[in-house]
Amino acid sequence: MRHKKRMVYIVDGARTPFIKASGKPNALSAADLAVAAAGPLLARQPFKAKDIDEVIVGCVGPAADEANIGRIIALRLGCGHAVCGWTVQRNCASGLQALECAVGDILKGNHDLVLAGGTECMSRAPLLYSTALVEWLTSLRTKNLASKFKAVLKFKPRFLKPVIALEQALSDSIVNLSMGQTAENLAYRFNISREEMDAYALQSHQRTIAAMELKQLEEIVPLFDWQGNVIEFDTGVRRDSTLQKLATLKPVFDKPFGSVTAGNSAQITDGAAFLILASEMAVKRYELPVLGRVVDTTWAALDPAMMGLGPIHAIQKLLSQHHLSVHDIDYWEINEAFAAQVLACLKAVQDEEYVKTHFGVKSVLGDIPLTKLNIDGGAIAVGHPVGASGARLILHLLHVLKRNNARLGVASLCIGGGQGGAMLIEHVSEVL
After folding, report:
1. Domains, the chain, ranges and CATH?
2. Considering 29, 139, 234, 299, which has the largest number of Cβ atoms within 10 A of its Cβ?
């Protein structure tokens, strides 16, 4: 007897507004943000928090007092002592990795109901002591007064220069390039102009503003801080953005000749996004609504210096495995780490030399039209809290497919270190 293939459904999801970093730590920690997103999500379900089988959380830089933040979040949500919570880290795709781990556990029959997603508080990235200062402080621990005095005399003011953790994290130690410099590489490789980047960035803001006004960001739940303030929308969206204003910004990563600026890059942001994944049995047991199902996920790796092309490498593998073409996909979400990076992906799929060299095919992969890509804007407008973005993309893409009565969607991200991830989802409203 042939057994029916086990499928994984996404039944609901929610995210916080994404809060632009303001130069000082925001009031809420990564765990606070996760609870703010997942709490209301679980509260509206017909099952209890203790009915969740496990909680999986993507987070790149949890605070020292939030080690294994997945477990902390599970306990704070009231899932109980018996429900496991764990944390995954795949840089910018950590939220997507959490979802894939949930899918794997459900497919294997280990679990039927999983809460998965991601959270990040980038504004709380720490300032660290330099190695020189740590070594000097250690030398002061001697009990010999003469040795202690000699150690004091070795102090240098430069020891006090802090190590900026976020700056370190957004750089690749293998190729010694920041993520912004890898975007400059792509702009040079595919001849992408500053004007093209700024126009794309403006479009991101305009599309997000339109989505806000049309109430098409229904996945956002209001966020309340400890002072009683309420935040209802992403705070980095700039209604006053114009091409003229964007053109005045100076390059950040390749001074003075580069084209990547703060205006055409994703913002440093805090936020969380979570989804509930379920087996067919759980859907039927709790009579859950269905947003869609996860078809497959692929990962790919490439030269870290060209990190931003990771989505195309993952997408090519995904489509090939399912005998699909670019034109079979109804809607796309490609995370907007940089305008140059997204535009480079769009050009790479139509570059015969690139696809032949890297994918071994003679014809181009096809055109991904802007009318089907990031139709409600992206990270340039709403921000990119690195642990949460993968989950945000999937959650929003599900709503886009539902809204437009479309079937297939692909969400993808570039990943620091030279990787890419992509997930294929299908919009369905009931179990298959």
Report:
1. 171-215+294-426 (3.40.47.10)
2. 234
